[in-house]
Structure formats: C-alpha cells, structure tokens
Design goal:
about 400 residues; alpha/beta; Alpha-Beta Plaits
C-alpha cells in the first residue's frame, strides 16, 4: 500500500479518537467520512486503509507514540509485509496477529495468519451465468474458477468475480441494473451449499440485509417461495431495496426474534440458518474486531446459535435440508454446536455439505473431519473464514 501523507494520517487519527466499545472502527469511519464532504473518494479510501492497517498491526505498535506516528508505523509494516510476507516470522504472527485468548478455540495455519494481515479482496456475485460478461464490463476482474492456483472450492462458484479495480462499484450502471451484488465468495459458497431448487419453499432465518436470500432466490429462478426473516426491521428494509434492484420477487420478508415461535406455520423444503457469531472469519476485513471480541462473547453466541438451531428444526419437512453457517472458526461456535445438535436430534441425519461435488472438491472435503462439516479457511479462498454444517430431516 502507498504510504499515507500527513493529511491522511491526521484524518485517520481523528477516526481512532472517535472509536469506543460502543462505537467500533467501521461505524466511526462511516460517520467521519460521511461528514467529511471536502474529501474525495481517493482520500476517503486512503483514510479507511490507514485505520484498518492500524488495527491489523496493532500489537506491533509502540503505544507511547502519537496516533499519527503509530498509523505511519503500521503502514510501513504493511508495505514491508506486502513486498515480502515471510519478512514477518510465523512465531510473531501467532503471538501478535490475533489475541492470546483465541488459542484454545482456533488452531490457525500460518498461511491463514498471513492472509489476515493482507488487505481483503473484493468479491462480487454476478447474476447466474453472467460472470464473464460482468468481468468484461467492469474490467480489472477475474472469474473465480479461472483464477490460477485457486482452491477447488472456487470451481463451485461460477458466478463469483474478483474485482481489482479502483472505481466505486456502487456508481456503476451494472450495479444499478442489478447485474451483481457485492458478496464475499465464502458467503456465496453458503448459498451454493443450500442448493435450493425452483418451486421449493425455503426459509432464510437470519437474513440480515439479504445477501444470501438474494442468492437463494437466484438459484430458485425467482420461483417458489423464500421466507426471509430477521429481528431487525431496518435490515429487512434494505433487503427489500436490494431485491427491487435485482428484480427478485419470490420472497416474503418478516420480523422474527429468534424465539421458539416460528414466523409461519409453513413447513419448508430447506432452512438456512446463517447465525449471529463472533465473526472471527472476517478479521481480515474487520481487523478492529480482533481486539473487541471477548471469550465471553463466544460463549454467549454459542448458546444463541444452539437455541436458534433448535427453534428452526421443527419447521423443516421430512427429507428437508438444514444448513448451519457462521463466519467464524472458533470450536465453540462451529463443531461444538453442530455435534450437540446432531446428538440432540436423532431425526436429523448429517449429510454432505456439497453433494455431487467434482473430484477435486471431494478430495478437499475428505481432508475435513467430516464431509457434513466444512471449514473454509481464509488462505484457501482469499476470502472470509466460514464454517458450514448440513443435515437432512429423516
């Protein structure tokens, strides 16, 4: 990354000063940049990069220095690392890139730790069958299965496009025409693991702003019915706007608080539970969270995830598919939750995450403890870390 000038360092220092336990870095950046109308897109991008770089290298910094000096030091470390990743030893990465409390929860491969220290890749999801056209339209783009040396799992995501250009994609005609969504490729693989069919009835139980719901609808060919629920009415309103731009209309939004009472008496062919989690898998994209998430958060979220799984299970038809996904890799929120659900629900049979996968993907799946549970590690996809588990109701 280019070293920031003094104006960028000063602006970034003001953002750092606004951060608090109740006001994380991404929120502080959004507010500061929204108010800084005198700054252009390039300047705003430089400030954002500096702030996130600071938290990426936080444990290497001398906190006795000024915020501007620490930001400059972080950017110098990033520049050196980008030129030569092995310049930072594996031992230093294990000790400093993530908090010490995480050690009992996650065994990181050194390549994943290195991945966490890189600026994140921007992934797009093209509408079905249009990835090559979108890549040509935007330029500076690669279609996922064509990326040299890519993980076998990327062959499952033919509509994923890696964007490397400088333009603001929200201002492009392609975006306003609904030609793509900005969606990490790991999240796209969650939708592909669900694999809904046209005419089926599905439930996206924690839909949020709708990224995975729109993907499910695309796979359903805009046919059948998709219930999209969330506890936040604000997020559902954003989902509606995104669906209107994408011309998706086979969904029904509804508020659901996660209680034992489902939003409808409908029985579903499939349920996707993309549950609230600690977000450890997103620490490349959101490095400030490394220093704000606690072990107590992980324990509390694991209880929430277990409760949500138990609450949605009764809404699945016999033969229906249940997909559990979290963008974290902690044992408490992944294998522990999935194994406990299997033990408590003998009427649910673990099934492969990706059925009928090509041989290279099957080989990668066989390297996992179970083909019904899958870790997607950041260094394998150049994307967020993710965990999936899948069952069929007997």
């Amino acid at each position: 990354m280019p070293l920031p000038d003094s104006a960028t360092l000063n602006n970034a220092a003001r953002v750092l000063d606004a951060i608090s336990p109740d006001f994380p870095a991404d929120a502080a950046l959004r507010r500061y940049l929204a108010d800084a109308r005198r700054l252009g897109p390039r300047e705003k991008r430089a400030i954002s990069l500096a702030v996130f770089t600071y938290f990426r290298w936080f444990q290497w910094l001398d906190t006795s220095h000024s915020a501007q000096k620490q930001l400059e030091q972080a950017c110098l470390l990033q520049e050196r690392f980008d030129k030569n990743p092995s310049s930072v030893k594996a031992e230093a990465l294990a000790a400093k890139a993530v908090p010490a409390w995480l050690a009992p929860e996650v065994t990181f491969h050194v390549d994943s730790l290195r991945q966490l220290q890189r600026p994140p890749t921007l992934w797009l999801r093209a509408r079905p069958g249009t990835a090559h056209k979108l890549a040509a339209t935007l330029g500076n783009s690669d279609v996922a299965p064509n990326i040299p040396g890519a993980s076998p799992f990327l062959t499952l995501a033919p509509d994923a496009v890696r964007y490397r250009g400088p333009q603001d994609l929200f201002l492009t005609p392609a975006f306003h025409a609904g030609a793509f969504e900005i969606q990490d490729v790991a999240s796209q693989l969650v939708g592909l693991a669900a694999a809904p069919l046209p005419g089926q009835t599905w439930w996206d139980a924690c839909a949020g702003e709708g990224g995975k719901a729109l993907h499910l609808s695309d796979q359903m060919g805009n046919k059948g019915l998709l219930w999209a629920t969330d506890r936040s009415e604000r997020r559902l309103q954003i989902l509606k706007r995104r669906a209107a731009r994408a011309k998706i209309f086979n969904f029904r939004p509804a508020v659901w608080d996660g209680s034992a009472k489902p939003p409808t008496k409908t029985k579903f062919d499939g349920i996707l539970l993309d549950a609230p989690c600690s977000g450890v898998g997103t620490w490349q994209r959101n490095p400030h969270a490394r220093w704000s998430i606690t072990p107590d958060d992980v324990r509390e979220l694991a209880e929430v995830q277990t409760r949500l799984l138990n609450h949605v299970a009764g809404s699945l038809k016999p033969g229906g598919r249940l997909v559990y996904a979290v963008c974290t890799v902690t044992r408490s929120e992944t294998t522990a939750v999935a194994d406990a659900f299997t033990a408590a629900h003998p009427d649910f049979e673990p099934v492969p995450v990706f059925e009928n996968a090509p041989p290279a993907v099957l080989a990668a799946l066989n390297a996992q403890p179970s083909n019904s549970q899958l870790f997607l590690w950041p260094h394998l996809l150049n994307a967020n870390g993710m965990f999936l588990a899948t069952w069929r109701k007997k």
